[in-house]
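Researcher: I'm preparing a figure for a lab meeting and need a structural model of a single chain. I don't have an experimental structure, so a prediction will have to do for now. The sequence is pasted below. Please return the structure as tokens so I can convert it later.
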Amino acid sequence: MDSIEVVLIMMLAVVASAYIRRVLPGTIPLPLVQIGLGALIAAKSEHGVDLEPDLFFLVFLPPLLFLDGWRIPKSGLLRDKGTIIELAFGLVVFTVIGAGFLIHWMIPAMPLPVAFALAAIVSPTDPVAVSSITATTPIPKRLMHILEGESLLNDASGLVCFRFAVAAAMTGAFSLQTAAVTFFWLVAGGIAAGVGVTWLITWVQRWLTRHFGEPPGSPILVNLLMPFGAYLVAERLHASGILAAVAAGVTMSYVELSGHAMASTRIQRSAVWDTVQFSLNGVMFVLLGEQLPEIFRLAGTSLEESGHLNRWWLLVYALAITAGLLVLRMAWVWTSLRLTIFKQKFRHQARQKINPRLLLATTLAGARGTITLAGVLTLPLVLPDGAPFPARALTIFLACSVILLSLLVASIALPRLLAGMTFPAEPEEQQEEDLARRTAANAAISAIEKAQVALMESDACIDPDVYPEAAARVIAFYEHKLKEVDPESEQAWRKTDSAERELRLAALAAERNTVFDLARHDHISDETSRKLVREIDLMEARYR
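Model: Understood. Here is the structure written out token by token.
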């Protein structure tokens, strides 16, 4: 009962954090508010929360990674795939090696495999934290897409490196050949499991719906369980459950383009997933704050055992590791940009100059968050021989400190760094949206004309002027959309009779199918299609 009360209090803290952030002065990011509330809960609570690492990993990571994979704009991911892969894989390995040796040099009592494990788990970045920080600060959309893509992939690469480092710490041995084979299976098996589970569940769900109908709420529940199914299947195959959850999310974004889901289901599902994402991310940061006092105490004890009697060394280590991560990230980003400019020069392309402010912004935007916390808490409690895992408390403390310091640095520096900067609009995105609106509106007008004829033939007793008048009103609506594509300028339309309702539903179905078709054939991005389909779904919900 006490555990349930703690969980409920944490959920209330997540709710309160959103309101507290609005009344606090300045631009304090939401994660820091939630961490503060967690520390307050720890101060007022008589007992802390005992976390089971494997259960913690299973509950929090699959849905968050699944949603990241589902919602990331894949057009931007493919366009900047070279830069994203360099950051997500090359930077992670560079960080693990550089920061690992730095940590072991500073803290000799921490074995090298444990130092590599700490470096690996602080390598993934968190776009949720960055989005919260930059909510009121202008940031180039393309840079945000790169950061989101980096975070999606470096979650997997960082956690895989972490897994290898922990295995080396547990066994005391590391084989490069074995690691390469294991890495290949982790990646291939994880991706295959995520894709296979998603397609299988989708196929079964469609078959059941065709033969037995769709029970209310069932598709949403199935969708919520999908990342856990992909994760567990991959883990049973000794593959990467992390990559399985990511692959399931990416696959789900393509499944969505089939348009089989009902409009009401899509609307409700989007709201449910927004709530799940907000709740899980919030609870993670509240939990971090709740764990901090005990982590600090255990880390101090671990530090004393290593020969340092002054606990201020904890702060020195945390600052040094955070600074080292920033230096490594800046060096990698700068080198990557220089190589890009060199390639442009070699290919006789127009060369772009490196903007120092954007270079620094990309460096500072590497804030750590929920993935780092979830991963580090899965460190084993004991070694195979029963001895305590070396420097476990110190490792957890330093990882949590990096989260806090990176959030503080980003929240203080990013708004000031980007203030006053203006960025050119993304013409390609606007052109895609205009194309989709015009094409969908034309398809809707054609569908209205066909539906009008069919309705008049099926109901010959009605006044012959009813359907033409209703069709004219609905067609006028779409002709207005062809002239003015700005959704904010659309005026509210009054309620219509039954004939107009049927025509509107027919037009909306045709409009939505056309948007899906454009996205399937890569004429528009899935981000644009989701935006337009949501507008259509919301409009359809008015007439259901």
